[in-house]
Specification:
35% helix, two-stranded antiparallel sheet, 239 residues, disordered N terminus, alpha/beta, single chain
């Protein structure tokens, strides 16, 4: 998959609530400010599952609970991909399944007996952010397509699973303009690269300078972002 450094830098920018909510509001709710940053709560990114070689860990790129006071409305995850990956539906099923399984935890009553948690259940949603700009995503986006051919008689008993794909480079100019966080700069870069194969830097002020530059350096082959990031780390003024 990707290098650990790249994973780390991707998660850093999206860990900020105003960035996370900005992405969700623009891509899922079509620009409506439905999710407020103060309603988001960080979720655990790592879960454990049983593999052929024993217990293994799986780690999400970003995930947060959307809450209304103390009630969880939804669990929202994000995965970042710079290149299409064939097995993405299988990976996201694992993430989402772990998030649903965590809702089955038990509590103990006054007598120490185990009782099932009675809190309302909430939906789990994962967004796949694709940053490729030369070609559209060309790998499976459903479980059926990932599996390939299997006995037709089994199809009614095998649940399909769909991936929620968002191709950042193919957003419209209007969609890019609706972002209010540093993600607007990220989206603008990839849209410009798709259209013109070159990038004219935005005049928008960067809030999370280091995290945004690290993300752009990790996702692209544009050395300008790495050079600026290195200068920023050395304390030089960024223009």
């Amino acid at each position: 998959r990707r290098m650990a450094e790249k994973d780390m830098t991707e998660k850093a920018l999206e860990s900020f609530n105003e960035v996370f909510s900005d992405i969700v509001n623009n891509l899922v709710f079509h620009g409506t400010r439905k999710v407020r940053e103060e309603e988001l709560e960080q979720s655990l990114l790592r879960t454990v599952y049983e593999g052929e070689s024993g217990l293994l860990e799986q780690e999400r790129d970003a995930a947060k609970y959307w809450k209304n006071v103390n009630v969880r409305i939804a669990y929202i995850g994000m995965e970042n991909e710079a290149e299409p990956e064939r097995d993405i539906p299988l990976r996201i099923i694992g993430y989402d399944g772990a998030a649903y399984r965590s809702q089955l935890y038990y509590e103990k009553d006054e007598e120490g007996k185990r009782r099932r948690n009675r809190n309302p259940r909430y939906p789990v949603m994962t967004m796949l952010l694709y940053f490729g700009y030369e070609d559209h995503w060309n790998q499976p986006l459903t479980l059926y397509d990932s599996l390939g051919k299997f006995p037709e008689e089994l199809r009614p008993y095998v649940n399909d699973y769909k991936v929620n794909l968002f191709e950042i480079a193919w957003l419209t100019d209007e969609q890019v303009a609706q972002f209010t966080s540093d993600f607007q700069i990220v989206a603008d870069y990839f849209v410009q690269m798709r259209k013109n194969r070159k990038y004219v830097p935005s005049k928008k002020q960067i809030i999370h300078v280091r995290e945004m530059l690290q993300l752009m350096s990790a996702l692209t082959k544009d050395n300008r972002f790495r050079e600026i990031c290195e200068n920023e780390e050395e304390g030089e003024e960024i223009h």
